[in-house]
Amino acid sequence: MHLIQEIVDQYPRLVQWRHDFHRHPELCHEEKRTAARVAQLLRSFGIGEVIEDVGTTGVVGVLHAGDGPVVALRADMDALPVAEAGVHDHRSLTPDVCHACGHDGHMVMLLGAAQYLASRTDLFHGTVLFVFQPAEEVATGAVAMLDAGILSKYGVQSAYALHTYPGLATGKIGVSPGTVLASVNSFTIRLTGVSGHAGFPHVCTDPIAASAAVVNALQTIASQGVDPLDSVVLAVTGCRSSSHTHNVVPETVELKGTVRYLDAEYGDLLPKKVRAIVAGVATGYGVHAEIDYVKGTPPLANTERETELARRVAGELLGDENVVPMTPAMVGEDFAFFLERVPGALAFIGNGEDSVALHNPSFDFNDAALPVGASYFSRLVQTVLS
Q1: pLDDT single digits (tens) 232-260
Q2: Cα(first)–Cα(last) distance of the chain, in Å?
Q3: Residue 377: pLDDT band by 50, 70, 90 thresholds?
Q4: pTM for the whole thing?
Q5: CA distances (Å), origin 304, targets 22, 33, 174
Q6: Domains and CATH numbers, the chain
C-alpha cells in the first residue's frame, strides 16, 4: 500500500476520535454532541468556514485553495436504536443506541482527510466541502442538507462518499459504475373488518383472513409482475392485529413491509401494483383497506467518469489487485440524493472478511481502515482538483 504517510502517522489520533464517537452515539437528527465535536475539530485544523445546523444538525466545512472545481466529500453521523453487544472498551455509553453501521468510522476517515488537506492546500486548486450529514438511517438527512442549498451555494460539481463493507478484506476498496444500491421504500396496510366472538364468525368480517390473502397476493408482484431479470424485493415484514386474546376476531390488522428495486422505472409501477392488489383483496373479503406507501431513497447510481477516477485513485494507493468491482445490493443509502443532482461515486471500504454484518449489535468499525479511507479521500481531492 502507498498510503499518505502524514495520515498514517496520525493513526493513534484517528482511533481516539473514532472511539469517542462510538462511545457517544446519537440518533437521527439528534446528533448535537457529534456535530459540535466535528465542528470543533474542523476549526482546529484551520478550516475557517465551518457551518453548523445545516438541515437540522449537519455540519459543512469549506476549504478553499484558489480557483478551480468544487468537490463535496460526505460522511454520515447518526447511530442506530440498537443495544450494543460489544465488549470492547469503547462500547456505547448510551442505552439502546450504538454505531452499528460504521458511521463513526465514516466521520473519522473524512476528518483525517480534512486535517491533512487543510495542511497541504499547495497540492490542489479549488474548493472542498466536507459534508457531515445527519439522519442517513431514516433517509431524511441528505434531503435536508440539499434543501438547505449546500450544493448550489458553492457550485459543487461532483460528490464522493465511502461506506464500510463487512466481508471485504481490510485494505481493499470496492467501486463499480452504474446502479450499486437499491431504491428503498416502505408501506403500511391497515385492513378494517367487523370484530366479534371467534365462535360466531358468520357475524364478523375477518381482517386476519384478508391479511393472509394480501400477503400471498403481494408476492406475485416480484414473481410474476416484473421482468424476472430485474431485481425487485417485496417483503411483508410485520403483522399486528387489534386483538390480544385467542377468542376475538379483531377489528383491524396492520401489515408493514418494504419494496426495493434497482431500476428507477419501477418507482411508479410498483406502488400502483401494491394498491391495486390490496384494493382487490379488500373488496373480495369485505374489509376496508388503507395504504400508506412511502417512497424512500432512489437507486444509488455511480457515474462512469467519477467511478473510473475513484477506481484509479484507490489503485494508486492500494494496488489495482485491491480494488474490486461490487455486485449491486438491495439496501439503500441516501447519498443517492446527492448523486441525483451531481455526478459522483460511493465506494465501499473493507471492514474485514470476518466482520459481523451491518446493523448487528456486535458490529464495530475496523480501525485499520481509518488511514486507508482518509488517504483515499485526500488523494481523490488532489486528483479531482489537480
Answers
A1: 999 999 999 999 999 999 999 999 999 99
A2: 22
A3: very high
A4: 0.95
A5: 34, 37, 15
A6: 5-180+299-384 (3.40.630.10), 183-297 (3.30.70.360)
